Amino acid sequence: MSLSLDFLSPALGEPAPRSPLARALARSGIRDLSLDYGVLDARGDLTGHPMEGVEVVRLSPERSFVLCPYRDAPGLREWLEGRGVAAIDASGGYAGLEVEGEAVMRRLTELPLDRCPAVGAVGHVATLVLRDGDRFRLFFRQEYADYMGERVLDALEGLA
Amino acid sequence: MKDIFRVRRMWRPRSELKPRYDVVIVGGGTHGLATAYYLAKNHGITNVAVLEKSYIGSGAAGRNTTIIRANYRTPEGAEFYKKSVELYEELGADLDFNLLFSQQGHLTLAHSDRGIITATERAEVNQLLGIDSRVIGRDEIRELCPEMDLSDDVTWPVMAALYHPRGGIIRHDAVVWGYARGVDRRGIEIHPYTEVTGIDRENGRVTGVQTNRGPISCGTVISATAGWSTLVCDLADVPLPITTHILQAFVTEPMKPFLDVIIVSSQMHVYISQTDRGEFLIGAEIEPYTTYRGTSTFPFLEFAARHTLELFPQLERVKVLRQWTGLCDVSPDYSPILGKTEVEGFHVSAGWGTYGFKAAPIVGTTLAELVATGDTPALIQPFELERFYTDTLVSEVAAAAVSH
Amino acid sequence: MRLDPRPGERIDRSEPIRFTFEGKLVEGFAGDTIGSALYAGGRRVFSRSFKYHRPRGLLCCSGACPNCMMEVDGVPNVRVCVAPAHEGAVVKAQNVRGSLERDLMAATDKFGGPFTPVGFYYRTMIRPRAAWPLFEKFLRSAAGLGTIDKHARRTGRYDVEHRHADVLVIGGGSAGLEAARAAAASGEHVVVVDENAPRGDAPGGLELLAPATALGIYEGGLVPVAAGRILYKVRAKRIVVATGALEQPVIFPGNDLVGIVLPEAVRRLVHDFSIRPGEKAVVLAADDDALAIADDLRDAGTQVLEVVDLRNGPHRISASGTKGRLNGVGVEGVRYNCDLVVASGGRQPAYSLLAQAGATVAYDEGRGVFVPRDLPANVEAVGSVTGEGTGSIAPAKTLLGDKTFVCLCEDVTEKDVKRAIAEGFDSIELAKRYTTVTMGPCQGRLCHLASVRMYARETKQGEDAIGTTTARPPWSPVELGLLAGRPHEPGKRTSIHHRHKEAGATMMWTGSWRRPHSYGDPAAEARAVHESAGLIDVSTLGKLVVRGPEAAVFLERIYPNRFADLKPGRIRYAVLGTDGGRIMDDGTVARIDDETFYVTTTSTGAEGVIEWFEWWNAIWKLDLSIVDVTGAVAAVNLAGPQARELLGPLTDVDLAPDAFKYLDAKQGKVAGVPTLLLRIGFVGELGYELHFPSPHGETVWDALAATGATPFGLEPQRILRLEKMHVLIGQDTDSESNALEASMPWIVKFEKDEFVGKWALEHVQERGMRDRLVGFEMQNGSVPPEGGAVVRDGRLAGRVTSARFSEQLGRAIGLAWVPEELAVEDADITLRVSAGLERAKVRLRPFFDPEGERLRS
Q1: Which three-class secondary structure state does DSSP give residue C319?
Q2: Residue that finishes a domain, picked among C309, C344, C379
Q3: Does the pLDDT of residue B2 top 60, yes or no?
Q4: pLDDT tens, B253-308?
Q5: What sign has the CA pseudo-torsion C44, C47, C48, C54?
Q6: Mean pLDDT (whole number) for A41-66
């Protein structure tokens, strides 16, 4: 049997995946997005691809992050590859959470909040920041989940 | 004692440049002045000019964090710096100038197994060469520095340390001034605000230098210009495998004695000492990017402050007074480039990274000997520029651990 | 002392505040500073000076000078003139032995003065050398101002807050506010920073940070602003500096006596705190604003004896006092008995922030002050910081006197400066370092101009020729706690981290990762791997997908080993070298398909390897992508003779020895999770490295642990890999090691046309081996330290890089660098153990299972 990159796709697993933020955010009331979104690390021209329910964040002319519903990542990846876009399922690599209000964001990042989406240091960790009104979605490498959970909760505590 | 009351000039006012000197030294820092001093003192060579583009001690000599130590990793390095420490111990008396050498002891902290291995490597090399240096555990660390946070409840718990009792701090400017006075009294000329703009050669031999105050002819030129080495050596078409980086430091307001030992943590990228004036002198690693621009950065302050407080939470309310940067010329193996170059009569003292100040007296003695005898002293043969052609590098970089 | 209520006063008389000073009760009102309350209570001496311990009193009353530094609630060096008074505060004098009024250390002033001229310590205590530590101890204890509580812990929290604005105005005086309003009127978002607490409401439409201090203008226009326990990091498109001008002291004999103040002190004492500053006063001033202070004084009931306009030519001025307190001043031979002298030598633009930002500073001959020029882009200056409306003169004629202070922070007198010049410290930068003038807590605010002027006069040059010293940030002293912010440090944890914690693992750092050292018994864990099966979390390995039509070409060029001929489904060990032929990292490369490779790196090397790959491909421009999947993939190694039977029931992959061979890669499900299975064996037993998506980390770990496999940590792993002589890059190698001398010649394929570092390795081949990494076996049971020395003829001949006692083998083994001639099987080497010497035999083949039969079983 030939090999593939299926081992990168958590959505292909039969058991339920676990969020890296589950412990850090337990009982905090902060929304954990880790298992809501699949993330594809894509290289190629994504313009002209009509993708509903999918957000494309361009990191460079070549490279984009594609956010989609968690379970859809393997399918979307296949679909993109079929259209000549090299895509890697990075869903397992990112944790995500949502915070509300500029105040807490100002305590965490020097990114200009009126220019999202953006990638930059949030609490010293490289983070993708998406903004919808007063809500901010943050995606960062899952190995920082405990740290980031603690850091965000601490920032909120400082504002309380 | 009578010297206290008598107002005596430290050095003569700058004179006119003579058309010819036997030796021209580029750079009026510790290395340049020390070389001049030992040329006169040990070899009677006094037709020498020290050219400095700004005021004496304006470069690395006046910006370093004044740590003197011999506990290096390579035998070549350790032996060399051992001599340097010995010379420093006698230097105040030799120059008749109190350099406020505070041999309070030097602790390099290990926060990981890898850190302990590096400390052990150094201790072993040091002990074989008769350098007082050993790996100590937490109990002994606590005795030496009861103020430090040695709990496990921190990001990087302290596991052990390399202890070097004779390591110390010194008043760096006093080293510059002491040497300058000694140089001047032996008849050598110091020319501040004199910039070298060209190095003349004929048939592969140095014949003189061009300066902003006119040309000088000479048979020997020594470049001792730290962060600017590559630029000065370019004037002689001698390429150096060196990159220039900035190193930053800051001092706090003076406080009553609190810390009586020098603390270095490579893993936390911070080192801390308290001067005889009471200021905490805190520095970090060199910045990873290369530049000649000595601008201080704010992230450095934040980073160094955060890590300082991890070790010494008591300093939370102590205030930072001023920060500065210095240029460091970093060689591929973190060892210096010292002695002859392919241009006859053109010698260099370069590639010191963050270790230059510690070496001033031994650089001075060995370079002076090289000039006087024409032969490279054995002690500095491992550091010749030639090693990059023969692939005999002297690695002061332990693979994973960072410098200092 | 307190005046009747006045309009505009900042104190709230309905709210008394009580605190203690040196144990005695002090009463003030809300709105008072500690300094104003003390002053209202009659206190005049606030501190003792740095060197001579002379009594010092309020001078600037605006937080600039060192004269009122005290310890407040255990915090040293607090400028009490601006520190708000609060109920229950515990205030103490600092840098005194005894009390402020009777300081034993004041002997240094009376008797030490003549013996301690500038730089005296450089000239004394040189011999005997043996006595220096004693002298030093005395010097150290005499130095320093405040005392640090050795038992203090971190207090409260400090936070950083980022701000973005169109315009940042630094200084909320009239010029600053005018600029701010104009910008706001045109729709810009404006932030104003001001050092004083606002009187009343914040100006409309502006965001006001106050009381707050801008610390500097750093690269990229970053302006950090200290505001109590919050550090604002402000970035604005435009920075307007309106920091105004600084009143300059007048330099005359006795100018440091308690009772000699700057006009601003009077303004604040009278208007803000409704305090009569003194009974009888003389005003000496060089500008109209300062002269007008006479009216404020009269208003507060102070008798103004004389107002001297210093612009009418230099005057002979000299003050006298008793016990450090002013009792009179002489001006041109006329003596006035008074307890207050308000003296101002004019105002100097506060240009430091501009200079830090890159502006040049030039002497303005007409005004007699230094002014900023050539402002950098996006930085503007308004108001008196530009020099507008400022001016200063050298108002006092030279009078000989010991106690003419140029620098109060450092107790530097005019005589000291003259002496420094006479000794040859004739550039201002040299003199600054020698006399330490301008290097104290006031950052040169009150002494820079005076010292430059003195230099100009003594060296008979113009002030412009003397120039200024470099303006170094921060502009105001700032607490380490505020700079440090929150104490969190980013650390990486694997998706299985909590399972290790729950199992009682001791954790350790590997680079920025936390990893289990062991679960309590390293030897038992190692034994389990040899006898049954062990389980280790290796998720920290760096993992890359290199993919594209030219991926194989890329790997072929970047590694010394061959990869173009690697078949899909096969794995090869990979050592990465620098262009200088040094070993950089190691790992494995598995070929997924023609165009896809899965590359692992060491745990600490991942970032470096990715950068290295990207750097080279920026040059080669091969058609491929490099994707870091380190965090996306969890990895677990199941190893031991029972690995196959334990894994079998959990997976759909055929594990039969002939179906799944050593160095094969297979894919399938493990515990229902899509997994890449790599048959490799770092620990020397039959083993499967399982790579699967991180969100299933705990699921797979739990399933494997449930089979009875024993979790093992890094420490047992080190023993096991050492038995196999597997090299740990970074521990067994250093930055100079190459693959040939590290005894891995088989990974270097010189027959390849090119690969990174080829020339350097060819050079090594040509010059011959100098040192070699070999195994060794101790002749007795002792374990040498890692990092220990290999000794020959009493000299260092090599290093021990790894050493452990192997229970499996029943002896101490290790790896060491030795000279080439000793790199032969059975050679005797001598190692340093606990400062003694021990013998060992060189071993060139793995200690355990040298033929690799167990790996391949």
Answers
A1: strand
A2: C344
A3: no
A4: 999 999 999 999 988 999 999 998 899 999 998 898 999 988 899 999 999 999 99
A5: negative
A6: 85
d(CA A148, CA A153): 8
Q: C658 lies in a domain?
A: yes
pLDDT of residue B401: 38
Whether residues C521 and C584 fall in one domain: no
The yes-or-no verdict on residue C759 having pLDDT over 90 is yes
Give C488's contacts in chain A (Cβ within 8 Å): 123-124, 147, 150-151, 154
Q: Which residues pair with C577 in a beta bridge?
A: C583
Segments forming the whole domain that contains residue C638:
517-539+633-737
Q: Is C690 part of any domain?
A: yes
**A21-159: which CATH architecture?**
2-Layer Sandwich (3.30)
What value does the mean pLDDT take over residues C539-548? 97
Determine the Cα–Cα distance for residues C590 and C688; give it in Å rounded to an integer. 14
DSSP assignment of C509-557: EETTEEEEEESS-HHHHHHHHHHS-EEEE-TTSEEEEEESTTHHHHHHH
Domains of chain B, residue spans:
14-64+172-241+333-390, 102-167+243-330
> What are B136's strand-pairing partners?
B161
- Do A2 and C162 count as a contact with CB atoms less than 8 A apart? no
CB atoms < 10 A from the CB of C785, how many?
21
At A52, the pLDDT band (50, 70, 90 cuts) reads confident
CB interface of A with C, residues 29-68, below 8 Å: 34-35, 41, 43
Instruction: Categorize the per-residue pLDDT at B144 as very low, low, confident or very high, splitting at 50, 70 and 90.
Output: very high
Complex ipTM more than 0.95, yes or no:
yes
Which contacts of C747-750 are long-range, i.e. CB under 8 A and separated by 24 or more positions? C747/C560, C747/C561, C747/C573, C747/C574, C747/C575, C748/C560, C748/C561, C749/C560, C749/C561, C749/C562
pLDDT band at C197 (very low <50, low <70, confident <90, very high): low
Extract the tokens encoding C787. 């990092």
Task: Give the torsion sign (CA, B23, B28, B30, B31).
Answer: negative
Domain check: are C531 and C679 in the same one? Answer: yes
Rg (CA), chain B: 21
Report whether pLDDT(B13) > 90.
yes
Handedness of CA C503, C509, C514, C515 (dihedral sign): negative
**pLDDT, averaged across chain C:** 93
Does C613 share its domain with C577? yes
Flag whether residue C787 sits within 8 Å of chain B, measured between CB atoms.
yes
pLDDT, average across residues C200-218: 83
pLDDT value, residue C155: 87
pLDDT value of residue B399: 40
- Assigned CATH for B102-167+243-330: 3.30.9.10
Residue of C nearest to B62 (CA): C433
Q: Is C568 on the interface with A (CB under 8 A)?
A: yes
User: Quick one: C695 and C606 in the same domain?
Assistant: no
